[in-house]
Structures are given as C-alpha cells and as structure tokens.
Amino acid sequence: MKKHLSILGSTGSIGRNVLNIVAMFPDRFAVAALTAKDNIALLAEQVRRFHPEMAVVYDADRAEALRKLLSDQPDVRIAFGDEGYRSAAGLEAAHMVVGAMMGAAGLKPTLAAIDAGKPIALANKETLVMAGELVMGRAAEKGVDILPVDSEHSAIFQCLSGQRRSDLQKILLTASGGPFLDRAADEFPHIRPEDALKHPNWEMGRKITIDSATLMNKGLEVIEARWLFDVSRADIEVVVHPQSIVHSMVSYRDGSVIAQLGVPDMKGAIAYALSWPERLPLGQPVPDFPGLGALTFRAPDLNRFPCLGLAFEACDAGGTLPAVLNAANEIAVGAFLNRKIVFPGIPDTVRAVMGQHTVIQHPTLSDILEADQWARAQAEDYVNR
Ligand SMILES: NC(=O)C1=CN([C@@H]2O[C@H](COP(=O)(O)OP(=O)(O)OC[C@H]3O[C@@H](n4cnc5c(N)ncnc54)[C@H](OP(=O)(O)O)[C@@H]3O)[C@@H](O)[C@H]2O)C=CC1
Ligand SMILES: CC(=O)[C@@H](O)[C@H](O)COP(=O)(O)O
Ligand SMILES: [Mn+2]
User: Fold this and answer.
1) Which CATH number among 3.20.20.140, 3.30.1780.10, 1.10.10.10, 3.40.50.720 corresponds to the domain 3-148?
2) Can you give the residue ranges of the 1-deoxy-D-xylulose 5-phosphate reductoisomerase N-terminal domain (predicted)?
3) Are 176 and 212 contacting, i.e. CB atoms less than 8 angstroms apart?
C-alpha cells in the first residue's frame, strides 16, 4: 500500500525535497495534502503534478487566487488559515504528516497531527523548541512516532538505534560553524544579509540559513535534541565540524563513539524519516573520503556567536523561555534580512527580550502562545527603537 503524505510547507526547501522523493518512488508514496503560505503559483504546480485531496494556504484571498489557478481541478479541496492547516494535518487519507513549515507556525498543525494519531516526519524544529514538553508528552500519550528530519537528529536517532539507553554518555551534535566561522568579531557589524545567506554546505530556506550563520540553529537543535531524545542539556555537546560530513555522533560509557556520515544533502534524512526502518535506494554518493583528505573538529566560540549561549540559557531555564528565545529570534532574523538591524543585533534583540520575561514552568499551549506573542511584540519594539 502506498504511504499517503500530508506535507505541511510543501513549497519550501524541505517540502520540495520531500516531493522529489515522492516522485522518485511513486509506488511507495502518494500525496494527501499540500500546504504553503504565499507561494500559490508553485503550490498550484505541485497540485497538478501530485494530485492531493486538499491544498491549504494562509488566508482567504490566497485561497481564492489558488482556486482560480486550479479552476480545472474541481476535486481538490482548497482551505486556508489555522483551520485549514489543522485539517490537512489530520486528514483521514494521510498515513504520515511531514512538518516542514518554517517557524512557530508549525506548532498547532503538529499538535493536530498528534491528536489525529498520525506519525510525523518532523523538520520544523521550532515546534519542539517552543513546546517540547507538551508535544512529546502528547505524542507519548497517543502513541505517535515523531521521526526526526533535521539532519543531526536523524543522525543521532540512527546512532542510538539498537543501543541501550543506560549505556549512553553524550550526544555530540555537529555544527558547520556557518559562513563566519573564521570571521573576526569586529567585522560582524558589517555582515550583509547576502553574505549570511551563503551557507558553506547546505541549500536551505532563508530563516534557517541565517540561524546557521549566528549559530542559533545549533542552539535550537540542542533544545530539539533535549526533547526528542529525552536527555538533559548537559548530555549534549556541540562540536564544530566545518565539512558537514559527520551529521552527529553519540558516545557510550565504554568510550565508543558511533557516528552517522553522508554527503550534505537533506534527501537522506528526509527519506529515512519517510521509510523508517527501511532505507530507500536513493542513489546518493558516498562521501569521497580520499578527496576530502581530513575531517576536522573544534569547540564553538560562544563569544563571537552569543546566540548559542542564549539558547543554552533558555534550555536550562525551560518553561516558556525557549518559546521566547524562538519568537524574538524570528523577529530579529526578519529585521536583519530587511536591513533594519545589523548582524550582532540578532543576539542583542534575543537577549533583551529574554531578560524581560517571567518564565512559566510546565506551560500549557495557551501559556506558550501568549509567551510567543509577547516576545514578538517586545522584539518588534526593540528592533524599531
Ligand atoms: N531546509 C533545510 O535543509 C532544513 C530545514 N529544517 C527546518 O525545516 C523547516 C522548514 O525549513 P525550510 O524548508 O528551509 O524553509 P522554507 O522557508 O524554504 O519553507 C518554509 C515552508 O513553510 C511555509 N510557511 C512559511 N511560513 C508559514 C506560515 N506562517 N504559515 C504556514 N506556512 C508557512 C512556506 O510557504 P511559502 O513558500 O508559501 O512561503 C514554505 O512552504 C524549518 O523549521 C527549518 O528549521 C531543518 C533541517 C534542514
Ligand atoms: C541540514 C540541516 O540539518 C541544517 O540544520 C544544518 O545543520 C545547518 O547547518 P549548521 O547549522 O550546522 O551550519
Ligand atoms: Mn540541522
């Protein structure tokens, strides 16, 4: 039987890669629902090619425009907004939901997928950063599998497989270090968005690419790993590995280290989440080890990359603070991309907003959504001050 996917964020970098895999394996996968925010032209193209039952966009105007583009496809249900995304996530026909939206928008549809009992291939790390305790708790209650798509978390998942949890020593989370790994601190105020959008190894959406450049991506991934694998922050060490060939490692109490390696291409991690525990014949090359010559490792520099330290702080404090970190970061990244603030303004904004927050422990969904909204407003004030 074909596995039908509801792909939330199908027009993005991850979403397009998921559809490439669906196209490569038409006997295994089909599409139940596709969602986007603004990009109705690409969404319409995807609908024509993959024939989902449902397509969802951000608001009524975009839904109307999509309906016009797809006037010759009367069988496709078109919906919009929170309700539409929730319906796509819980669609009867879907065997699995792919969480590939950008940012905090991914949280509510992920919860809807869990409530509907759908296994989730999760790329949207912000969901676990904001609400890891709630999401993992609800998934456990419902017996829903959350399969990591994020490359490091897919690697860790693979390195943990078949091992005893009581033997685990540390998760070694690798970071490329981004485009400014060797840039002097006094040059940071002059970094332009177009420089920060040039990731050395990965082709990704704009927001995550800026997060990689500030190392906030690694901070978000520490919080993601904390919840996904039920470990404490002290059990996770960030190791800078500029080649992005070792996708992450796990060390055990006998001193053994198990690593997962591969070329930096998200197809591997995505396909593994879609087909786990089977591996698909992707035709991916094995890294050219003689050509690479050396794989190198070093410690992260928290002075030049304060976002990583802020994420450690949020992870340690827990409660609503990670949601505040995430929301302030989303606003700050947007402001940097719009040239309203300089590159070091990103950690400055996040620090200022975190400093004003009163943390609520074991937050409910409404506590988290309120903290998110509060932090966005504070961050807007800060970047516009
Ligand atoms: N790209 C990668 O290689 C990796 C990404 N991730 C994570 O996966 C997620 C997606 O990343 P990526 O594919 O790069 O992002 P993109 O920006 O390329 O795509 C984001 C997708 O989400 C949609 N979207 C954006 N905002 C909203 C919103 N407010 N409501 C509904 N839909 C929305 C976009 O629609 P539209 O196109 O219409 O704007 C698009 O389909 C992120 O959480 C990222 O951290 C994790 C590991 C690797
Ligand atoms: C592909 C992927 O998973 C990204 O999250 C990637 O890890 C970004 O690279 P760095 O954050 O290590 O630069
Ligand atoms: Mn990653």
Assistant:
1) 3.40.50.720
2) 5-132
3) yes
Q: Is 124 among the annotated ligand-binding positions?
A: yes
How far away, in angstroms, is 79 Cα from ligand 2 center?
A: 32
95: annotated binding-site residue? no
Q: Is 253 left (phi over 0), alpha (psi -120 to 50) or beta?
A: alpha
* Token pair listed for 200: 């050395």
Does the predicted TM-score (pTM) go above 0.90?
A: yes
User: Look-up: residue for tokens 């450690």?
Assistant: 312
C-alpha–C-alpha distance, residues 95 and 33, integer Å: 11
ipTM of predicted complex: 0.99
Task: Give the mean pLDDT per block of 10 residues along the chain (385 residues).
Answer: 98 98 98 98 98 98 98 96 98 98 98 98 98 98 98 98 98 98 98 98 97 98 98 98 98 98 98 98 97 98 98 98 99 98 98 98 98 98 97
Please count the other Cβ atoms lying within 10 Å of the Cβ belonging to residue 192. Answer: 11
CATH number of 153-377: 1.10.1740.10
Confidence at residue 172, expressed as pLDDT on a 0 to 100 scale: 99
Ligand 1: residue of 38, 58, 101, 197 to mutate (most ligand atoms within 8 A of CB) is 101
Ligand 1 binding site (Cβ under 6 Å of any ligand atom): 9-15, 36-39, 58, 100-103, 105, 123-126, 150, 202, 204-205, 207-208, 266
